[in-house]
Automatic annotation (TrEMBL):
Origin superkingdom: Eukaryota
GO molecular-function terms, A-Z: phosphatidylcholine lysophospholipase activity
Keywords: Hydrolase
One Pfam family of this chain: Lipase_GDSL_2
Signal peptide: none
Name under which the protein is recorded: SGNH hydrolase-type esterase domain-containing protein
InterPro entries assigned: Ester_Hydrolysis_Enzymes, SGNH_hydro, SGNH_hydro_sf
SUPFAM superfamilies named among the record's database cross-references: SGNH hydrolase
Residue stretches making up the SGNH hydrolase-type esterase domain: 76-258
Amino acid sequence: MRRSGDGDLTFYGIEKHHSLSFQASAPTVLTITISLPATQTAAHTNTISSNTITTTTTAAETATATPAKAITVLPLGDSITFGLGTADRNSYRQFLQQRLKDDAIGIDYIGSVRSGTLTDNENEGHSGAVIDQIRAFGERTIAASAQKPEVVTLLAGTNDVARKLDLANAPARVLSLVDRIHALLPHATVLVGSIPPLPFIDRQNVGVGHFNDVLQNLVQARIAANGNGTANKVGWVSMEEIGVEDLADGVHPNAGGYVKMGRAWASAMEDAIGKGLVIV
């Protein structure tokens, strides 16, 4: 797992690769829109275009073991969390779920919104929502849900930057939301993602870059203050690998962008699990 910084849950790279074993058999070709779990017996190749993720299978698949325990995850954010930018509306949630499944770790998504072709497609992604609205949606879902999330994947600020809504205080509003989540869920781990570029609105990446830099500093200061403890658990998840070429419409990631985003979230979750901040 690659990190660009020291300490707890700071930078997470996009570098993990899974190898698959295969057995010869009469070839059959099946094109599906998910990656095969590493526990399946098959030879396959993945290709990512701006609109689709295609896996071509040339061997018989075997059953995948069901994870013993599922981590309850609340995907919280705006239209990127919802999944705009691709026809399937699966966002990063599909790849994150599959990557953890490859590790024999289940994910149980919760939220008041359903979007995507995933069987488990619950989330709390609201198109056009700014930070304060995302806070209200999160508070409502946490209070109403019988299942309490163990992990919150938080991606907020895109619409604030796009609308130039009190930009000087926007990163602090995200950190305040993190504190509010911990007030409601003292033992939850909150993973805070940086926002992708907005080339049509912020052509020089000044607004997005400044927002991400300030928010990163705030989150890392909170991590340092926590001293790797089990209270107020928070992590910084860099989405810096997502470039303009990974956007479908200048705002929302395309299929390849969502894969990169899913890998970043997955690396952060794997790191949190390794540190004992998330129990499986």
